Each structure stands twice: as structure tokens, then as C-alpha cells.
Amino acid sequence: MQARRIGAVAATAVALVTARDLVQKRHALLRNFPVIGHARYLLETIGPELRQYIVTSNEAERPFSRAQRTWIYASAKEENNYFGFGTEVDVEHVQGHTYLKQRTFADTLPDAQDPLPSAKVLGGPRGRAKAFRPASVVNISAMSFGSLSGAAITALNKGAALAGTMHNTGEGGLSPYHRNGGDLVLQIGTSYFGCRNEDGSFNLDKLKDVVASAPVKAIEIKLSQGAKPGLGGMLPGAKVTPEIAEIRGIPVGKDCASPSRHTAFSDVDSMLDFVELLATETGLPVGVKSAVGELGFWQELAALMARGDRGVDFVTIDGGEGGTGAAPRIFTDSVSLPFRMGFSRVYGTFAELGLTDDLTFIGSGKLGLPENAAVAFALGADMINVGREAMLSIGCIQAQKCHTDRCPTGVATQNPWLARGLDPTSKATRTAAYLRTLRKELMKVSSAIGVAHPALITADDIEIMNGDYEARTLAGVYGYKDGWGKLGPHLAEEITALLAIKPTSVQKPTA
Fold first, then answer.
1. How many CA atoms lie within 13 Å of 34's alpha carbon, on the beta-carbon side?
2. Non-local CB neighbours of 478 within 8 Å, separated by 6+ positions
3. Cα of 407 vs its chain's centroid, Å
4. What pLDDT digit, counting tens, does each position of 205-214 carry?
5. Which end of the chain is more exposed for a tag (fewer CB within 10 A), N or C?
6. Within a 10 A sphere around the Cβ of 254, how many other Cβ atoms?
7. Spatial distance between the Cα atoms of 412 and 235, rounded to a whole number of angstroms
8. 109-136 as b/e, with b when 16 or more CB fall inside 10 Å?
9. Of 279, 264, 154, 126, the residue nearest 217 (C-alpha)
10. How far apart are the first and last CA of the chain?
11. How far is residue 13's CA from residue 137's CA, in Å, rounded to a whole number?
12. What's the CA angle centered on 193, arms 407 and 254, to 5 degrees?
């Protein structure tokens, strides 16, 4: 009798916990996996003790270590993101560790402000009709609806609006979930989703209609991405729902493989004609996104831009360590250069011709961590895009199930049951908190180095360590010449003066 009573009490308790888990909106994992999902949080709580004996260290996991994920989670939840007792990095022996050189004395620095504007006016040097100064140096990278769930896209877009950042649509087109208040960068891939004819060719009139229908601030032509350069986008058939099929104009349930190259242009010369066409017809700044392989493309692009009559307004350099929803392992592991190497080579190509102040450099590929972001700015980036880090802020647990449609937290799936676990409203707040925290960390680091803005950090301000017996500056490691990685004097003066103004006076992008 007593055993039956205990069993009834236990069953009632489990039922209550199940009911609570199903209706709460704080944790997507618990909504999708009631009761058993608590095991993950228990293991997370006792993880440090377990890892001392049987599992990996805080710094060992990839793509993002546990320490990195913990910092993102805590920042998104506005919890204590500090670490105690000292570094866990083996700084005495590890190769390639980054050190930022603080200054003992510095000029008067402005108070930290948020959002943190770009040091350059996007589209300004080429006189685009709708040129503007981006309100944030940190923005959300290209991730398509299809690769991510509608709930995830909604959360990211609402979070972008709250944090004053831009949200890149990804090549999958501008979906209803992108229309939640966040400013957009419209990405055009090789399949021209949302602006294509029935045969898959580009349609300018449809592009103009899309641009007019949403707060699109810039257009990005995707040439390639770091995780699968030389391949078109791949959306597994399991993710091609009727809704996605309608948005993209493709068959339901069939793998959606985009071509590897564009049909609207065939070389650098015709690409620049295409860029100028889009800029003229829409008034928007137009740029390109690419991974870095052979440098011939970039050398020809810089040479043609040096003539002054045509050019891109920005380049987004995606590192080979960047993320993807689905790609062959050989491409994610071994095709295209990592960010630091690739970006430095492209930047140097434009620097040789004195063009670096004439366009905006954007970096992506694991740059949503303060150390990596600081390095990107030191190498000459003007802005950074964050992708997987933003996913982590809305509940991703790095399950690495993106390509299976079985993401347990509803982020990278089209499964309705799994996606329902992600509450866009609460996750939007977390995204915004993470983005704001990253900007604040960048301002703290800039202040420690003695400069007013991350774009003023130089390649001489950071050293790469080789154990405890050798160190070289970024400039030395990547072959930067004197002045490379630095803003021109007028741009440096302009952003310093702008930051001296109270934050409420910083203008956001105009419509």
C-alpha cells in the first residue's frame, strides 16, 4: 500500500513537472523534452567536477569551447559572465594565443555608449543615394529561413531591433519572419531566391519590389561562404516545407542545392556592372561576401576599383572556420583560408592601392567573442557579423544536428514540434543582451588599449604568442606595412568626435 502511495506521488510529481515544462517559455529544450531535459541542466551544473576526472576541459571543445559558450549564455541571460581564479588557457606553452597590449596612460576617452556606430559611412565614398552610417559595429550574420526555423529568425530579428543592429537575411530570401522590426541586409545568392524568374535567372523588378517592402539597408551579393566555398547553398529536403518551397519557388521535400556560381555575371568586370546596376536602381549600398582562396579575384577587383568609376561599397570576408547548416566535411575542414589569414591578404591587396578608406570591411567567422573581434578590428575590419554566437544566445546547445532537421532546441529545424519550443519573444531579449554585451566588451578592450573605438585598434596593439619565449605583433605575423589596418586621419578624427557626443545624438540609419 505504501509503495503504491509513493508511486502515485511520484507519478503526480512527474505529471506536474511535465505540464510545467510544456507551458514554460524560458527553455526550449524543456518544452521539447519535458522532464528528461532537466538532465542536461543537472549535468551542466556538475560539469566542472565531472570534467576534472572523465571529460574534456573547458577549452577543449570545438567549434566553441565550453568556456566560450558559457560566456555567451551568461551574457544573453544578463547573468554574471565573469570568470574566477585566473585563466584556464595554458598561456605558458600554447602557440597562437592572442595578447592585447594595454596602455598605462591614454588621452581622455569617451564614455562607453551603446549602440556603437561604425567608423565609416556605408556607401558614402561612392555617393550612394541611401548611404548611411551603421549604428552598430556588431551585426547578425547571414542565416536563411530554412536553415533556421521561423521562430529562430523571428527571435534574431526582434533582437536585432532591440539592440539596434542589422540582420542579414541569408540567401534563402526575405521571409515573413524577417519582418519584425530589425533593419535588414538583403543577401542575393546564386539561386536569386525572392528575385528570380521561373528559370532561376535574376529578375531586377522583383528585387526592387522586395527592397521596397521591408527595411532593407544594403544588398550583399554572396559569392561564397567560409564553410563551403565553391559550393552553392544546400538545404536538405527534410527542411523544405511547403512554406519554404513557396518562398523560394522550389519543390517540396527535395534537396535545394544552389548553383556554385552566379549566372547574372561571369567575371569581375561584369560583376562590377551588376553591382552598379543594383546600386543605381535601389539607391542602396551594395557589397560582396566571399571566402578567400586564390587572390587573383581580389587583385583584379582592387585594380578595377582603383580606376574610380565602379566599385563595391563593402566586402564581407568569411573565414574558413565559419558555420553552415550543411556541407561536406572536406569543405568545412580544408577549403578556404581561416579568417585571419584570408582577411589580411584581402585587406593588403586593397591597401597596396590606397583604397582601404573607400570601402567598408566586414569580418565573419567566429568573431562573436571579444578576443577574436578585437583581432578582426586590428587587422582592419570596420564591422563584424556574428552567426553561431547569435544562435547560442537564443538557445543553441551546439548539438551539431543542423543538417538533420533534428535540432533539439528548435533553432536549426523545420520540425513544428521542435520549433515550438523556442519562444521568440524571450529569446529576442537574450539576443539583444548578448549583442549589447559584446559591444560593451569591445569598448572596454579599446579603452584598455587607449583608443576610443575598436576600429582604432591597430595591428601593432596585439601580439601572437608562441609559448612564453616568443611573440610577434599582428603586423609582423601577417606582413602588414606601416599604416595598414589603420583608419585614415579624417575617419579617425570623425569617429572620435562622434563618440564625444552623447549617445542619444548618434543617428541611426535612415529609411
1. 15
2. 340, 341, 344, 348, 379, 459
3. 19
4. 999 999 999 9
5. N
6. 12
7. 11
8. bbeebbbbbbbbbbbebbebebbbbbbb
9. 279
10. 72
11. 48
12. 50
C-alpha to C-alpha distances, 289 to 364, 370, 397, nearest whole angstrom: 10, 22, 27
List of E strands, 380-504: 383-386, 462-466, 470-473
What is the rounded distance in angstroms from the CA atom of residue 181 to the CA atom of residue 215? 8
Which three cell numbers, joined as nine digits, stand for 89? Answer: 588557457
pTM of the full structure: 0.89
Q: Which residue has the cell 568556456?
A: 67
Amino acid in the structure at residue 353: L
Q: Residues near 49 by Cβ (< 8 Å), separated by ≥ 6?
A: none
Write the pLDDT tens digit of every residue in 144-172.
998 999 999 999 999 999 999 999 999 99
C-alpha cell at 150: 521561423
Place of cell 526575405: 174
Cis peptide, bond prior to residue 115, ω within 30 of zero: yes
**Cβ neighbours for 327, distance < 8 A, ≥ 6 positions apart:** 227, 228, 231, 234
CA distance 39 to 20: 16
Does the bond joining 63 to the residue before it have cis omega, within 30 degrees of 0? Answer: yes
Number of H helices, E strands in the chain: 18, 13
**Residues 6+ positions from 454 with CB-CB distance below 8 Å:** 116, 137, 373, 374, 377, 442, 443, 445, 446
- At residue 478, the pLDDT reads 96
Q: How remote is the C-alpha of 314 from its chain's centroid?
A: 16
Q: How far apart are alpha carbons 368 and 184 in whole angstroms?
A: 19
Residue of 106, 100, 115, 166 whose CA lies nearest to 499 = 115
Q: How many angstroms separate the CA atoms of 402 and 88, rounded?
A: 30
- Contact yes or no for 14/35 (Cβ under 8 A): yes
Greater confidence (173 vs 324) lies with: 173
**CA dist., res. 54 & res. 67, Å (int):** 17
- Residue 112 carries which side chain, given as an amino acid letter? A
